[in-house]
Predict the 3D structure of the following.
Amino acid sequence: MGADFLLILTDVEAAYLGYGTPQQRALGRVSVAEMATYAAEGQFKAGSMGPKVEACLRFARSGGVGIIANLLDVEEALRGEAGTWVVPEGQAAHAGGAEG
């Protein structure tokens, strides 16, 4: 397709580890390997965040950036200031995303 970004908009600010628990933590910029590990651990429910994470993983594995963000944070997410960015290996250390 030639697209650089896959933007998935939802009603939460980001993908979370431990969602709905006291240990809940938003993910910022994460590598494909890191996000795949979290997915394999069952961190993302199949009927909720799971399909969004899988789509971002597929996109990032092909060289693009998958972004999960709140519908109201579109501009911030595209600037790397909000949401979860799933990036190809070697790009996770750069600034961007929420925290993580």
